[in-house]
Design goal:
- The structure is a single chain.
- The protein is an alpha/beta fold.
- It has one domain: TIM Barrel (Alpha-Beta Barrel), CATH 3.20.20.
- 33% of the residues lie in helices and 19% in strands.
- It is built from nine helices and eight strands.
- An eight-stranded parallel sheet has the order 1-8-7-6-5-4-3-2.
- Strand 3, helix 3 and strand 4 form a beta-alpha-beta unit.
- The longest helix is centred in the last third of the chain and has 14 residues.
- The chain is globular.
- It starts with a strand and ends with a helix.
- It binds D-xylitol-5-phosphate and zinc ion.
- The site of D-xylitol-5-phosphate has 21 residues, from strand 2, strand 8 and helix 8.
């Protein structure tokens, strides 16, 4: 499967988001991962649809929006109109089939995500509901720069096997949190193919080289 790298702009300088997404595109990123936090589902607040709209004209890369928010249904329209290409909602916050229907009605890709303490089986109904991608959190949502939770590897394997046996073997499986050049091979070997990387990309001296190495 094609490995896609999705740098998280959470780790970048918020005073120059436009320049940053242009640089990511030149550096070979496949997606721009946008971490939306509401101060409720997770303690911090980051940014919302208005910021997504602001960066939209600066890149042709898909904007992969990870909604760490309570009541995501009240925000779907705003993010769709802001130019999001994918909206990922937490299974802990909503009724996935209903949200998928709503997201798809705007012509946007629909994805589901589970927290580290949520059983991987909770992601199965989202696969069956026609998800375009499933995201597995490999850190507790809310902050960049945390350590990868190793138990995630088993969850990736279980989910990839479920996909294979349920006619969705090629489904994009994304992993988010603590992914580095040291552990990315294990993450890919377990069956993930979309790699979110915040600190690993933005703390490196050469983003293009880091993105290339993360791809393996
Ligand atoms: C955490 C976010 C992640 C985070 C990843 O809540 O969803 O996307 O930015 O950052 P790193 O790669 O630094 O763990
Ligand atoms: Zn994220």
């Amino acid at each position: 499967m094609k490995i896609k790298i999705a740098p998280s702009i959470l780790a970048s300088d918020f005073s120059k988001l436009g320049e940053t997404v242009k640089l990511l595109e030149r550096s070979g990123a496949d997606l721009v991962h946008c971490d939306v936090m509401d101060g409720n589902f997770v303690p911090p607040i980051t940014f919302g649809a208005q910021a997504v709209k602001a960066i939209r004209p600066h890149t042709a890369l898909p904007l992969d929006c990870h909604l760490m928010v309570l009541h995501p249904e009240t925000h779907i329209e705003d993010f769709a109109k802001a130019g999001a290409d994918n909206l990922t909602v937490h299974v802990e916050t909503c009724d996935i089939p209903a949200l998928f229907k709503m997201i798809a009605s705007y012509g946007v890709k629909k994805s589901a995500v589970i927290n580290p303490e949520t059983a991987v089986e909770k992601a199965f109904p989202a696969v069956e509901a026609g998800a375009d991608m499933i995201l597995l959190m490999s850190v507790h949502p809310g902050w960049g720069g945390q350590k990868f939770i190793p138990e995630t590897l088993k969850k990736i394997e279980t989910l990839r096997n479920f996909c294979i046996t349920h006619g969705a073997g090629e489904l994009d499986l994304e992993v988010d949190g603590g992914v580095t050049e040291e552990n990315v091979h294990d993450v890919i070997a377990a069956g993930a193919n979309v790699i979110v990387a915040g600190s690993a990309v933005f703390r490196s001296a050469d983003m293009a080289a880091t993105i290339a190495r993360l791809r393996g």
